[in-house]
Design a protein that fits this description.
The protein has 250 residues and is of the alpha/beta class. The protein is 44% helix and 14% strand. The chain has a single domain, classed as Decaprenyl diphosphate synthase-like (Undecaprenyl pyrophosphate synthetase, 3-Layer(aba) Sandwich), CATH 3.40.1180.10. Strand 3, helix 5 and strand 4 form a beta-alpha-beta unit. The structure holds 3-methylbut-3-enyl trihydrogen diphosphate (IPE) (2 copies) and magnesium ion (MG).
């Protein structure tokens, strides 16, 4: 399937809602946490798949603001798993030239997570391949609020005239800052919702939902399948199909 992908028309930025770990485990009579442990392989698959193809940005929704409301033992298990997998995956990230970063309220994470993340971000900062961004303690509304607060502070201290606030002002203050907006968003697990993921940044994204696939079963082929569907869509950005065709013929 990979050979069918047009390397000249890749999504620059792919975002993924990695959903369905709990149900994957429960379907086989295991505890939800078993599903989280088996999700790491899928993370590796999507990361390596994107890195090999030459995708520039991959943002993975790993823990939402709302996920704090889960049972305490599940939250604790997720945090421990995060520390372990960042540590274990660091050599693979280096080998694949992956640069790691995070978005979200990472100060809300346990100290051990913050330290492990800081170490991996520092170690990979000179890498020039795929930018892998983990959304942790993230929600789209949180992001917009923290951006608005920064904009308001600039207005208050007199460095910004409110009449000059435009899309770029807000975008520059979002957690995703200088990164491009999302071209393609994937969600496993069968639900068709955004779950407070990137809101602003998904404004013109193509959305791809896997109906019968839980995240632990995600493999490179599933990535290829979504990219092929993406390459078949005409992205019009409000214009007419004729305008788009005339432009691409140039
Ligand atoms: C996604 O799987 C992982 C996280 C949200 C951390 P879930 O844990 O949401 O699994 P389901 O959706 O309950 O099956
Ligand atoms: C979205 O999944 C968050 C992550 C994948 C980290 P959820 O399982 O939390 O979403 P809902 O609750 O089904 O909307
Ligand atoms: Mg879920």
């Amino acid at each position: 399937m990979k050979e069918l992908i047009d390397a000249g028309n890749l999504p620059k930025h792919i975002a993924v809602i990695m959903d369905g770990n709990g149900r994957w485990a429960q379907n086989q009579g295991a505890a939800r946490v078993f599903g989280h442990r088996n999700a790491i392989k899928a993370v590796r698959e999507v990361t390596e798949g994107c890195a090999e193809l030459g995708v520039s940005y991959l943002t993975l929704y790993a823990f939402s603001t709302e996920n704090w409301a889960r049972p305490e033992y599940e939250v604790r298990a997720l945090m421990e798993l995060l520390v372990q997998s960042i540590r274990n995956e660091l050599p693979t990230m280096m080998k694949n030239n992956v640069r790691l970063d995070t978005i979200g309220d990472t100060l809300s994470l346990p100290r051990s997570c913050q330290n492990q993340l800081a170490e991996a971000i520092e170690a990979t900062k000179e890498n020039t391949g795929l930018n892998l961004i983990l959304a942790l303690g993230y929600s789209g509304k949180w992001d917009i609020i923290q951006a608005v607060k920064k904009v308001a502070a600039e207005v208050k201290n007199g460095t910004l005239n409110p009449d000059e606030i435009n899309e770029d002002t807000l975008a520059a203050n979002l957690a995703t800052k200088e990164r491009p907006e999302v071209d393609l968003m994937l969600r496993t697990g069968g639900d068709h919702r955004i779950s407070n993921f990137l809101l602003w940044q998904l404004a013109y994204a193509e959305l791809y939902f896997y109906e019968d696939l839980f995240w632990p079963d995600f493999r490179r082929e599933h990535l290829y399948q979504a990219i092929l569907a993406y390459q078949k869509t005409e992205r019009r950005f409000g214009k007419t199909g004729e305008q788009i065709k005339a432009n691409s013929a140039k």
